[in-house]
Amino acid sequence: MPSLQKTREPQDRPQGPRTVIPTHRDEVAAAGSELIGGPFGRRALTGRGQFTPVRVIALVAIGMFALGMVQKLPCYNWAWFRGTTSQYTHACYSDIPHLFSGRGFADGLVPYFDRLSGDIPFLEYPVLTGLFMEVAAWLTPGSGTMDHREQTFWMVNAGMLMVCAAVLAVCVTRTHRSRPWDGLLVALAPSIALTATINWDILAVALTSAAVLLWSRGRPLGFGILLGLATAAKFYPILLLVPLLLLCWRAGKWREYGTAVLGAAGAWLVVNLPVMLMAPEGWKQFYLFSRDRNVDFGSVWLLVSQRTGTSITPDKANMYALMLMVVAVVALGFLAFSAPRRPRFAQLAFLVVAAFVLTNKVYSPQYVLWLVPLAALARPRWRDFLIWQACEVMYFLGIWMYLAFMNSGSKQGLPVDGYQFAIVLHLLGTLYLCVMVVRDILLPEKDPVRQDGSDDPSGGVLDGAEDVFVTGRAAHPARHAAPAAEGPRVEWGTPGDPEPVTERDSRG
Length: 508
Fold this sequence. Notes:
This protein has 508 residues and is mainly alpha-helical. The chain has 22 helices and 2 strands. The protein has one domain.
């Protein structure tokens, strides 16, 4: 039976998949869109003129960030300065104003060079984050009451971090060319609004997202440079080189991987080497603090310690976490080489960072920021994303109520059992999203990103590349299965068709 599909002339055929509209494919997105007028239609202005996805999502991200600043208002007005549990009961705690005086910025001390008077002799943050903090201190007036100066320091940092949040949302929006609206997952993530101004993590998250964007554009050197800068602001971004190694190994892209590694090492050294040479004691404080830190809030080790009544020393926690990370990386390698189709870069990147979060000896509330952009790229489904976010919001509230309980003499807040339940929610929510990503890898036809015929939009040189090293199921595919490196061939219908039609759909 002849095909009923109307095809265009070759010169009119588009060069890639059409833009995926979430309200056309995601039931949760379609239902949620009723609040703003319903699913995307033919007469929608978005994408034309001033209403491009990048601009809309950047504005939404800034708006959500501003709401997060409003949420901190009780603390900004008084709770930070009274030394009471109010900053916990209002869930508006932030490290930023407390470290203004606690780490010497109020006194004009130079990070890493000038010794502090407390238990921590030097600033315990990586060099690029320390520079970020110092720039904010330069912009903070040196006169006025300490309360006012701390307010100003927090506000200056919030303004700088808002720029990072906008950059983060834009980078995620542009990474998958055919799925720009996935950036709304980041822009509307409640965890970003709640945790972005607790600490300075979003600086590293924005740099990491910019690095992933450059990799998706086939620029390994730019990726490496930005990843090196991100690692100079926080440790976790260096983990992305692990899944990249596995994927480049499977695809034989050794030159590109080497370029990325050299770029990352060079950028990290440029930032760190001057401080390393001129203030070695101050420079290594971050690494000593990370090594010697006790089992702390939010970690599975704290849960085990409290439930069993046994103390887990920092050395043991470090050893256990390292062993579990090695197991996770080995499992990730098996998954990368044996999956029927090469996993997408964002999928493995999310899994390796999630493994680090789950096994680390501390889980501060703002660490969720590390996973938000990777989750949006790895599993862009609103239902799964919101389930995970709900668990993280519950943990966010749980830790502050637990601290209120501990600091108020057990008069108010969440007792130990309640806080342990919040930790379990965080662990289960993250594991749930990991399971969904692994399912997409093992069953690539379930992957929402690949359903339009795409291979790996965030993969750069890996996108559409042939495999040179596979094992297990990938080395012995079923005879009826499609080749691992190929997706369904997309044929384009008439201009009014809402979605592309695959070769299978066009047959009689």
